[in-house]
């Protein structure tokens, strides 16, 4: 069954090609149903391949399918092929599963949009690219998918490009991700020059690189991951990406694409050095805290979730930096469930509120939108770390892994704990502002529940967000399904060494942090015993002015510097090239008479040259 892996990305590719040729003729809703069917069939095949992988033993759970030699250049031979192993199938399962639900949701959400079929064309292309990224058997195939999801991200963020803000956000995402692409490419060049291969299985079996080279490759891969997964200082594109339609926010910027960087680092765990892991852990912790602080003061319902995504991605990088790769993937999965649920829930609210996104203009929606409210609350409890919902289990593993790190472990744990408290606060604030309290919308607005195509995915994701922790419960060793499934692919899997007492104490503290966050939000937004202005300073609302600083530098000093560089390039570099060309022309004019075209002139030249050569030989002999 594992040999069917080639069908997984092929199905959404076929959907894309069909919509490219006939999408406009299919129109609404047929184009949407076709794209959804392609995604659903891809999920079914993924599940079949997954079952085929389960029939193999732990050491034999790796299958490579090579389609053809793609780039045979000297000693470099890049194959077009797929790798079926526990990591690739784990990623493919939730990419296709959550992707299918988002496709279905989009059928209702994009109703009436004049570019309905084009939207699903982009979604199918994105799904194909994402599957190539996670299923490729080498870094070049992964890079192909990496660039594909980047292109689709640009197309989907700026989908409503007639809005200046959407067009600008798309360009911002595209440019920022190019910084990460630079790191990816240089890392590939260094890897190939050091070990002579870019194939994952061969990289895992190769001898360790020199420490300096290994650290350089690790940090360059981290630069690539930071660009795609929105870590400091390259996070700035993701909050603006909310200009795209809400299904885009859920699929591209919550559940799938932004986890590409996490996947890359986990896949390359064999080359990550201890020095690089410390950097990854520190940056991840800093990003988690920074984005959580920014989220507490946002007014836009999607902006809160955008900064929340940046923060949760920081948790994943903290896990990777702590060597807890299973915990990182565990949080990737649970985050895909509850964050896709929250984004789609916010889209349902926006749809029901007739495109209103300001939470200060909502309130009391739980009675008018009961399905949306109920499922959104489940997502809130999951991300807030309330047991037994899924987010508690994955977040607790990350905090425990951070605690066990030598030297800086307690600091990383403390930062993660404060972030957990802030997460519970700002998500509670969002729920209370949107679904509880008094109504704050205009009388002309009539909120309503969304159609079944939108509420059904919400219900399925709510079940996953509530019960997703079952795939890796630490309560009983036999329930650590994900850990037992993934560990064989890691060179140095992290094993927790803390005592049961320590684990219980740390978990209790984490739960108390969440309770404090929820309690504070209740006092502010439901009981009104604390003034909200004191907790929403402008510096948080503007994300510590980092984005504004970038804009000033790029648009001010940076713009002038770029102009100077451009002028210098024209004057000196282009000038030197142009001067060489002019000199060549002048030399040609001087030498033109020697090329008269008359045979007698050439014969005389040959005779004179021969005589001169003869005289030189005779003179040398004497």
Overview of this protein structure:
Helices cover 69% and strands 3% of the residues. With 622 residues, the protein is mainly alpha-helical. Strands 1-2 form a two-stranded antiparallel sheet.
Task: Write a concise keyword list for the protein shown above.
single chain; 622 residues; mainly alpha; two-stranded antiparallel ribbon; 24 helices
The tally of helices reads 24
Q: What is the overall pLDDT average?
A: 92
* Arrangement of strands in the largest sheet: 1-2
Global Rg: 29 Å
Q: How are helices and strands ordered from N to C?
A: HHEEHHHHHHHHHHHHHHHHHHHHHH
Residue stretches low in confidence (pLDDT < 50, at least 5 long) are none
For the record, give the distance between the C-alpha atoms at the N and C termini, rounded to a whole number.
86 Å
Number of strands: 2
List the helices and strands and how they pair.
Layout: H1 7-26, H2 30-54, E1 63-73, E2 76-84, H3 86-109, H4 116-135, H5 139-157, H6 164-195, H7 200-205, H8 211-228, H9 237-240, H10 246-255, H11 260-267, H12 274-295, H13 301-321, H14 325-352, H15 370-383, H16 390-403, H17 409-435, H18 452-467, H19 481-486, H20 500-525, H21 538-541, H22 546-555, H23 557-591, H24 599-621
Antiparallel strand pairs: 1-2
Helix pairs in contact: 1-2, 1-4, 2-3, 2-4, 3-4, 3-10, 3-14, 3-18, 4-5, 5-6, 6-8, 8-11, 8-12, 10-14, 12-13, 12-17, 13-14, 13-16, 13-17, 14-15, 14-16, 14-18, 15-17, 15-18, 16-17, 16-20, 17-20, 22-23
